[in-house]
Amino acid sequence: MVHIKRVELTNFKSFGGTTAVPLLPGFTVISGPNGSGKSNILDALLFALGLSSSKGMRAERLPDLVNNAQSRKTTVETLVTVTFDLSDYDGEPLGRNSDETDNGLSSEMEELGEETGLEIETETGKMPVPLGEPVDLEWTVARKLRVTKQGTYTSTYYINGEACTQTELHEQLNKLRIYPEGYNVVLQGDVTGIITMKPRERREIIDELAGVASFDRKITLAKEKLDAVKDREERSRIVEQELIAQRDRLDKDRSKAEKYQQLREEFQQKSQWETVLNYQTLQQQQGRLREQIEADDRTLTELNEQRQQKDQQIHTTSVQLEALNAHVKAMGEEELIALQSSLATEEAQQRQLQTRSAELETALQQTVTQIHQTEQELRQQYQTLDTLAIEKDQETLNLGQRQRERDTLQATVERSREATSQVAQQAESWMVQQTELHRQIETLQKTLDPHRTEQARLRERVEQLQRQLSEQQQSLATLGEELSQKTIALEGATTQRDATSQQVATLTQQVTEAETNLQVQQETQTRLLQEQRERQRKLDKLEAQHQAQQEATGSYATKIIAQSGISGLCGLVCQLGQVEPQYQLALETAAGARLGHIVVEDDSVAAAAIEFLKRQQAGRATFLPLNKIQGNRSNLPNLATMRNLPGLIDLAVNLIEYEPRYQDIFAYVFGNTLVFNNLSNARKLLGQYRIVTLEGELLETTGAMTGGSVSSRSSLHFGTDQGSAEARNIAALKERLEEIERILERCNRSIEETSQTVKLRSQQLNEVRQTLRDHQQQVSLLESEIKTLRNQQEQLRSQLEKNTQELNTAQIRLKNLEAEIPNLETKLQQDREVLAQLEATHSHSEWQQLQGVLRSQETELQQKENALRTVQQRLIEIENQQTRLQDKIQEGNQKLEAIRQEQKSLTQKLETVKIQLAEIHQKIQQTRVKVSQVEAKLGEEKKQRDQVETQLGELRLAKQQLDWQIEKLQETQQGRREQLTIKLEQIAAIRTELPEPLPNIPQNLDLASLQRELRSLQKRMEALEPVNMLALEEFERTQARLEELTQKLTTLEGERTELLLRIENFTTLRRRAFQEAFDAVNENFQTIFAQLSEGDGYLEIDNPEDPFSSGLNLIAHPKGKPVQRLTSMSGGEKSLTALSFIFALQRYRPSPFYAFDEVDMFLDGANVERLARMIKSQTEQAQFIVVSLRRPMMEASQRTIGVTQARGAYTQVLGIKL
């Protein structure tokens, strides 16, 4: 057993000079008076092995470890050497490297061994040893501390006399299962530390034992790689976005260039058509102009003749009219004209009143129609309300019936469960009997198979012996040849067996690794699925809360607008700003109703939304278009001069966070409003500025003051940091869920691949194992045959009698087997029949039948509960419909009352208009009578005068028409002659531009349509300019780069998913390692605590689902006391529990030696005895060095080392073997 053989202390603490403390395997107690330095021996172990800091060795600094008597020297040093006995060590070679000699044998010993020629056997081979010297397989560790007069110091570690670093030393100590984080040396403060440390620190001890740090390092390394991949992916994404933008831009330029090219070609073709059509049109126009000029010249001559005749007629008629006018005027014409004017005015008033009367009658008819419609709607609503009340009563009765059915069925299910449980309890004995029968059958089968094999072998042997006895002389000649053949066959079979065995080992390792990997992947999948469900539930909850808040924001009109799908909506004012919680009330008060105004991109969106509200009759809303809104920034106060005002905080618009594009919106909402801390400070500026306080008081520039208790019923609020935090939480949850989804997808593929690998490797392993079994059987058979042949060859001539005896023995054994095997087969058949009858018993089938009935009843119960919930939901819907109908009825009654009031007003107005119509009608009648009287007086004279006047007017009008025709025709003729000249010039010019040959032009195409098309093509071409004609080639190059980058991004995404899966697998392994360590330590703790306290205890994790964020509690139940936690125990119980925990840690990771420093100081005698017995019981597995003053501990030890300072100031050591 590896153990500490010797500790040498030179000037270490209380030890002056050099003191060697020999230590033996087993249980050693170090004892002595207080202050004698007995604990310094354990400090020396910690110092030499580098297992603790200076404070752990009860020193402020390392120089304090040097003996005080040496402080007067210029340079002092202390040296501690620990020698290990490695006589039973079978692990990896110790030393600084693999070139050093194994097991501590020096090169000098090899040289001496070569001189003497002696050798010893070791595990690594033969080693030379010197004569006359004992062989000690030792390994030495030393540490030297040199301290100068100035207080500086150097510390050096040595392994077998060679300097090394602390890291190198710990690597070698790890091979001996000695760890710095372990509990090889338990000092006085370690037990107290276990008691006083926090649960999380206690759990971290398990972390260290489980090697969680190594997984943390792997996770950290994987995360660093993941961050690097993410950075590369983000950079690639940025380049991708730039390429996509460039590609889209080039795509537009390419389409634009292609379209421009097509338009240009079409424009050139149609320009040629225009030239041809222009030439043809000009020729046609030239011919028509010549014909029109000739025709209009003839018409002009005829018109001049007609004008001369009209002049003569006008002169004659004018003379006649003057005579008639003089005669009519003398008879009263002016009075008639006045009466006619008055009559026209009265008739106009009558028509206006009639129109007004018709409008009032129409409006009155509409009000009557509205009254009828509203009354009809109210009657329908009342009927619906009555119907809902009846339906509610019916559903209430149905609800009671459903509840009774559910309760009855639930009672039936409970009875069925009880019956099933009883049958299951009865079936327990049946299962025990069945298991026993299986075991008996298996035992008989194991006995019967070797007997059958032996029987076959003996029959073959008997036959062989008989042949040997009858043909022995003949067989001697062939034995040599047969033996040679068997030997060659054995060599070949052995080679095949070894190769197959190596293949089995390789496949077994591959299957184990694949199964381990599969298990890790499955555990990772389970953990991720659980995390996915938890995070999805949390996300659903947060989104539901957020949705509820959004739905509760704003009026009915704003909600209708938000749901309309109109593009260009930015949101409510309250949704576009973020405020700090302390300013929320003040800013919401200052904004007032403008919180609910809707911000839109431009006024066209606002107009469309208003029209939508009109169509839906959804009320009114105020819209703030970004392109038109003007913030009120006039008369802003000078804050620089007002900073000294008590209580002033800032302008309201400066206290809200928003996007820059909404600056005018919030300037409009808040204007020049100031924010003060309280009302008393704000009142000093009342009437000068608009002011709001943090408590919600509002002071207007008019002097008005608003304040009082604050209502919390408003649903319009600015966003706060809490809302942003919720949004960030939702975004983080969605990101994590997407990440988990990708990891799960990759994990599922990995599980499927690994499962296929396990299946394939397992199948291969089974096949190879079968082959190995065949080879082993073949080798065994060949070895047996060779052995038999050799025996026959050696003894054939001299042992004929012995062969006869062997034949007799084989025949007797064969006869016995032939007698035993039928009995065993009969017994096996009987047991199988009993097992078959047992499995067909009524209890088994009854239990299965009851299980089927129970599942059917549970399914029916679930259906009843679903039906019950449906009825309950319907009742809630009916109550909601009743509430809405009552609200509509109330609105209808109010609307009906308003319409009736309007009907009354319209009736009064209509009566007034009718009275006015009667009065004006009477006036018109009177005026008409007067006109008739005057007209009768004038008589025929006026009629004759009017006829002559009408005739004169017609003649003058005819003459004017002739003059206009003549003048117009002359101008037209002049213009036509000028046009003819121009057309001739144009025809001569276009004739030179005609294409050769002339193109084919569609027959139905005219010049005007063609010119419109050309103008359209020209405008379309100008609209497309400028055009990038190189876009086609650039687009193809950009598309190729984008496809290459997309492939790269796909690869990076795969790498990122693979790294995420690797991190999750490391997390799974990390948790598994912790859980395995915890379970083992917990089991050890329960066993050890039961031995030490005669009670029971266990370890408990605060949150088993997340152990790495939890603490570790020690739960104990001392004999005769209730269950307690560590904090509620007495001092002795705490020490005993902490020691149990330390022993549990040591048992989980055993070491070759343990050292305890007065760990029994708080225990009573009985507990010290139990502790000593436990230590003694473990001395076969490890060396124990205990510093103690307690008699039970010393009595239980195998030897005691006494420590004293009786002579001089140095500690002295005395050994006593008990």
UniProtKB/TrEMBL annotation:
<dbReference type="GO" id="GO:0003677">
    <property type="term" value="F:DNA binding"/>
</dbReference>
<feature type="coiled-coil region">
    <location>
        <begin position="448"/>
        <end position="552"/>
    </location>
</feature>
<keyword id="KW-0067">ATP-binding</keyword>
<dbReference type="GO" id="GO:0030261">
    <property type="term" value="P:chromosome condensation"/>
</dbReference>
<comment type="subunit">
    <text>Homodimer.</text>
</comment>
<dbReference type="GO" id="GO:0005737">
    <property type="term" value="C:cytoplasm"/>
</dbReference>
<feature type="coiled-coil region">
    <location>
        <begin position="1007"/>
        <end position="1062"/>
    </location>
</feature>
<dbReference type="GO" id="GO:0007059">
    <property type="term" value="P:chromosome segregation"/>
</dbReference>
<dbReference type="GO" id="GO:0005524">
    <property type="term" value="F:ATP binding"/>
</dbReference>
<dbReference type="InterPro" id="IPR027417">
    <property type="entry name" value="P-loop_NTPase"/>
</dbReference>
<comment type="similarity">
    <text>Belongs to the SMC family.</text>
</comment>
<dbReference type="InterPro" id="IPR003395">
    <property type="entry name" value="RecF/RecN/SMC_N"/>
</dbReference>
<feature type="region of interest" description="Disordered">
    <location>
        <begin position="90"/>
        <end position="131"/>
    </location>
</feature>
<keyword id="KW-0175">Coiled coil</keyword>
<dbReference type="InterPro" id="IPR011890">
    <property type="entry name" value="SMC_prok"/>
</dbReference>
<dbReference type="GO" id="GO:0005694">
    <property type="term" value="C:chromosome"/>
</dbReference>
<feature type="binding site">
    <location>
        <begin position="33"/>
        <end position="40"/>
    </location>
    <ligand>
        <name>ATP</name>
    </ligand>
</feature>
<dbReference type="GO" id="GO:0006260">
    <property type="term" value="P:DNA replication"/>
</dbReference>
<protein>
    <recommendedName>
        <fullName>Chromosome partition protein Smc</fullName>
    </recommendedName>
</protein>
<dbReference type="GO" id="GO:0007062">
    <property type="term" value="P:sister chromatid cohesion"/>
</dbReference>
<keyword id="KW-0963">Cytoplasm</keyword>
<dbReference type="InterPro" id="IPR036277">
    <property type="entry name" value="SMC_hinge_sf"/>
</dbReference>
<feature type="coiled-coil region">
    <location>
        <begin position="343"/>
        <end position="391"/>
    </location>
</feature>
<feature type="coiled-coil region">
    <location>
        <begin position="730"/>
        <end position="972"/>
    </location>
</feature>
<keyword id="KW-0238">DNA-binding</keyword>
<feature type="compositionally biased region" description="Acidic residues">
    <location>
        <begin position="108"/>
        <end position="122"/>
    </location>
</feature>
<dbReference type="Pfam" id="PF02463">
    <property type="entry name" value="SMC_N"/>
</dbReference>
<keyword id="KW-0547">Nucleotide-binding</keyword>
<dbReference type="Pfam" id="PF06470">
    <property type="entry name" value="SMC_hinge"/>
</dbReference>
<feature type="coiled-coil region">
    <location>
        <begin position="250"/>
        <end position="313"/>
    </location>
</feature>
<dbReference type="InterPro" id="IPR024704">
    <property type="entry name" value="SMC"/>
</dbReference>
<comment type="function">
    <text>Required for chromosome condensation and partitioning.</text>
</comment>
<dbReference type="GO" id="GO:0016887">
    <property type="term" value="F:ATP hydrolysis activity"/>
</dbReference>
<dbReference type="InterPro" id="IPR010935">
    <property type="entry name" value="SMC_hinge"/>
</dbReference>
<feature type="domain" description="SMC hinge">
    <location>
        <begin position="567"/>
        <end position="686"/>
    </location>
</feature>
